[in-house]
Amino acid sequence: QLPTGLYKKVLVILHDSVLPYMNEPTLMMDFLTVAYGIGGAISLLALNGLFILIHQHNLEYPDFYKKLYSLLDPSIYHVKYRARFFHLTDLFLSSSHLPAYLVAAFIKRLSRLALTAPPEALLMIIPFICNLFRRHPACRVLVHRPGGPADMSEDPYVMEEEEPSKSRALESSLWEIQSLQNHYHPDVAKAAAVLNQFLSEMEDDISGLLELSAYELFDKEVKKKAVDVPLEFEQVRGLFGKKNDIFAEHFSLD
N or C: which end of the chain has fewer CB within 10 A? Predict the structure, then answer.
C-alpha cells in the first residue's frame, strides 16, 4: 500500500522511466493491476504501464474493458490527466476485432457525459466519437436508426449498468449529439452537426485537441476579428428615439 501522492508520482514515470530498463517488466503486472483497480486518477495513470504490458508482454486482463468503461464518469472531462487518458482509450478502442456492443457502449456513455462537459472537452470528444464510427461501421445504427429518438418512448440505454454487454447501447440512438447541435458555443454546434452528414473514411486527427484548454478557447475567441453589427435601424427622433413617439412633437435632440 502506497500513499495516494506517491502512487501518482510512481505511475506518471513508470511507463517510460522504469519499465524499459527492467529485465523482466512482467514483475510489475500485479502492482499495475492493483493500481488500475483503485479508481480515480490512479487508475488513469496505471493505464500507460498496463498498455505496455498488454501490447508488448502479453498480459491478459479479462475485465480490462469493463474497468475502462467504469472509469468514464463526469470528472473524466475535467481531470488533469484527461489528454493521457483519451490518447490511451483511443488506442485501446482502435482494434477492429472489438465487438460492436462494446464500442457502442463507450460511444453512448461518452455522449451522455458530454451533455455536461465544458466546450474545450466537447471539441475533442465529438471527433473522437466520429473516429469510433469510422472504425466500427456496425455502430452507425446509433446515428442512422429509422425514426431515431422520435420513435422511442424512452432511451433503452442503461447508464448505471457496469457491464457494457448489458447496457443495451446498440438498441439506443445518439440523441445526445443531436442535442449538442444546439449548443451555445458555435464551434461545438458545428462539430456536432458533422454526424448529420456522411462521414469520410479518413479519421480526424485529435492529437492537437487532447490538451485544448478553456484559456486557449477563450483566447481564440478574443483574437477573432470583430464584425460591425448594426444595432439601430431607425433614425433616432425625439427623446425616446421612436418615430411616432409623442415626445418627438415637443422635444428634440441637439
Answer: C
Query: CA torsion, points 43, 47, 49, 50, in degrees to nearest 10?
Result: 100
Calculate the CA 177 to chain-centre distance. 11
Judge contact between 206 and 128, C-beta under 8 A. Answer: yes
Q: pLDDT tens digits, residue range 21-50?
A: 888 888 888 888 888 888 777 888 888 888
Residues 6+ apart with CB under 8 A from 24: none
Burial profile 116-127: b = 16 or more Cβ within 10 angstroms, e = fewer? ebebbbbbbbbb
Q: Say if CB 122 and CB 114 are below 8 A apart.
A: yes
Q: Mark residue 130 as left, alpha or beta (left: phi above 0; alpha: psi -120 to 50; beta: remaining).
A: alpha
